[in-house]
Amino acid sequence: MTDKAPGITADESEIRQIFEQWSQAVRNKNLGAILAHHHSDFLMFDVPPPFLSRGIPAYVETWNLFFSMAPIPVKFDFDQLEIHASADVAFLTAIGHCRDTEPNGQIAPLDFRLTMGLRKIDGQWIIVHEHHSVPAAS
Amino acid sequence: MTDKAPGITADESEIRQIFEQWSQAVRNKNLGAILAHHHSDFLMFDVPPPFLSRGIPAYVETWNLFFSMAPIPVKFDFDQLEIHASADVAFLTAIGHCRDTEPNGQIAPLDFRLTMGLRKIDGQWIIVHEHHSVPAAS
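^ Those are the sequences you sent over. The predicted structure of the assembly is below.
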């Protein structure tokens, strides 16, 4: 017996668990838990500016900005999760759903695209890259 | 003697070569060469809408749109390339530089973020995902 779904590798299960803990930590506004599996040289491409953020302090700033705009309770849900994992490098794609506060104060749904890159370092999966975006205004 | 840089694995060299062939193919407007290493179930998150594109015919549409807006000669250059490769899964990040034609007809530089995901299938690296974006307007 196993608690893994058929065809899902142990690495895929670990990555899914890290991903779900991370998104839950965002919903909980728990910054320590958000950062629990991130690399010190982490590279962020976020929805709003700046163009890129490098390292944990800059990553924290992106969450401070997000939480300043996110209505309570924080919505940060995903579907269409696809995990591509080898023994020590992995990436995943997903579609995210959150909410934004517009300049007029109205709350609006905001869907975004997410790509996340991971490496296994000393036996632990670590998030080294996130790319969050929306399409450019046409 | 070797033609690889010190510390670069054979997989990283192969992925760099595929990446450089792909970006050269864009500069050459050579659609066949752009598609030379893409998976049939390829997932695209592009700069302009649509929100996502799945499969090769939809990917071709994103290039038709790009070429309709790109001044000649086509600029499609990258720097800050970082490759994370294992034996059969890899991703890379890079900063791209192209040009856009604005509604008033003026040509403007456009910088964008790129994440690309690859899998090795039957001994060949295949591109299964691209995520191109610019930060949302603030």
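Residues 10-133 of chain B form a domain with the Nuclear Transport Factor 2; Chain: A, fold (CATH 3.10.450.50). Chain B has one domain: 10-133.

Shout if you want it in another format.
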